[in-house]
Every structure is written in C-alpha cells, then in structure tokens.
Amino acid sequence: MLTAEGCRARRQRFLDRLKPSHPVVLADPLHLRYFANFYVDAISSSADFGGLLVIRPDGHATLYHDAKLPGGVAKAHADAVEKLPWYTGQEPELAPRRLVLRPALEANGGRIHDSIADPIGPQVITLISELRRAKDPDEVELLKTCMKASDAGHAWGLANIKPGMTELAAYAGVAAAAYASLGQFTTVYGDFTVSPGSKKRGGPPTPHVLEAGELFILDYSVIAQGYRSDFTNTICVGCKPTADQQRLMDLSLAAIAAGAKELKAGVTCQHVYDAIRAVFAAAGMAEFFTTHGGHGLGISHPEPPFIVRHSTETLIAGDVVTLEPGLYVDGIGGLRIEHNYLVTEQGAEQLSNHRIALS
C-alpha cells in the first residue's frame, strides 16, 4: 500500500510547484488516491462517493469524508481526518449525501481547486498529471502487488481455458485466481474474448462458447487501492496453434522485445513505437498492427505517456508503461501480448512475469 511518507512527499512536491497562498481543496478521486491513499472501492454501496482533501501551504493535510464510507478508507494518510455524519441506519439522513461535505468546503474557502470549472482547475489538474508520471517507490510496490495478482490469473487461464467454456466462465476463473492472490475481492476488468481478426480486437466477456482453435485475448487489470496492472496473453483454445497463428505470436514476441530494448529515460515514445512497428514491417505485416504500441499505467488506465505513431512525449525515469503489440488478421485470428515495465535512467525493469504462450 502507499505509505504515509510517500503521500506526504507527493503533497510537498505539489506545493513546491504550485506555491499556493491559500489552502488547496482537492476532490478528484484520482488526486485523493495519489496524495492520501484514499480509495473507495468500486465494489461497495459507496462507490460513487468520495471526500475532500485540504492541503495548507505549510503542508498540513486534512481529509474529510462521510462516516458511512467502507472501512478501506481507514488506510488513508493525512495529518487529520474528519468523518462527517450522514446516515447511521437508526435515524433519517441529515442531508442529501452529496451535500454532507458542503460545510467543510465552505469552511475552507468554498472552492474545489481541481474542478475544471475553478479558475485554477486546469493548472492544478495539469500539474498533478505531470507529477504522477514519475512513480515513487511505494507506488511501484503497490503496482507490483496488482501485477502479482494478474500473474496468478494468467496462469489459471493458460491451465484452464478450454473448449465448451463460455467467455464469462473464463472471466470468473481468472478473477477468482486474482482474488486469491490478492487476498481480497476487488475489481478485475478488461478483454476476455475471442478475436477472429480485424472485426473484434477485444471486449468484455460474453456468453460465447469457446471453440477449439479460437484465439482468446486475455488482457486485463487488477485494482489494488486504486492502482492497477494491465498485461496480456492470447490463448489458442484447446489445441496447438496453426503455423499462421504461431507466426503472429512469434512476430509479436519479437516486437515486444524490440520495444523493451529501447525503453530508457530520455528516449522518445515515437522511437519505441517505431521499434515495435519495424518488426512487423520487416515481415510485411505492419498493416495488421492497428493498435497503439503501449501506454502509461498507474492510478488510471491508460495514462501518459502514450507509445503511439504520432507521439510527442519522451520517457522519464519512474514512468511505468506497457508495451502491447498485436496483429489482427482475418481468417487467422487476432492476437495481442503485453508486459509492464518501470523505466529507469539505465533501461527498464520488467514488472509483469506471466508466461506468454498460445498454449
């Protein structure tokens, strides 16, 4: 989990850049995760409700939230926490739940500074987005927790996905393996579907019954305290892949290796994308590479930097990125693979460790 020290350091970097003369009030759930480890689990009755974080110019931070939020918010890190009454289950609600935070807001200047409607909202949002690029050690450790759970789900998929199973059943099995690894129920989302080629490159699980020889794309994220993994394998259902399917995999493996070799602080995202695409181009297959080459990862998905054809961004130390080359060929099938990496001054550390194989 994020540490109190890490949250405090992120708040101080924010203040050092913004230099506010007054308390800054933040309400965006992403920002409260980043600065205070405050996260309301999506699988709860309170999923649509959050809090306010007030950061004074001297660094003191106060977190306000309604007292009905689930117990996980107790993991938050702030100098002071004020739980506001709303509904006890014994008496009627004191006010509409959305308005419980209003007195705290009014007591702290009446403005939400990371609202797009606030005069300094765009400045605050842009600054925090820039700060989030370089991950702190506690963020990397939390991302590794997500990735370990995703590794477990991928191992289950390779061992258990078979003909006669629905895509929904495959999802349930992968998610259960991730829950067991993580030690808790959480959100698992992504692509759990067969790709016949260009017409369907991904999507949520459906009642479709898997047939032998189909290519099943398993590209998903596991969320832990608001941070998330995102890596991929493609499985040939129930049999050995055809020579054409194996060629798609071999080319994608070569492409991801070529991209990973270029990951380093100071390298442009365009250069990394070009390294991936060059493998497909050399094989006369570039026209079937129709997705991005990768993207940043952390609190949201996807997030900067973006490894795409017309990128203008440059990698920095602390970026956590994915590389996810794939090919989608009608009559053969769609295939995508993906790993996650921590970018450093010297190169990159691979964070995901699942086995990439068609069978």
UniProtKB/TrEMBL annotation:
The keyword rRNA-binding does not apply. It comes from the Bacteria. Signal peptide: none annotated. Pfam families: Peptidase_M24. InterPro entries: Creatinase/aminopeptidase-like, Pept_M24, Peptidase_M24B. Keywords: Aminopeptidase, Hydrolase, Protease. Residues 141-345 form the Peptidase M24 domain. One of its GO terms (molecular function) is aminopeptidase activity. This is Aminopeptidase P family protein.
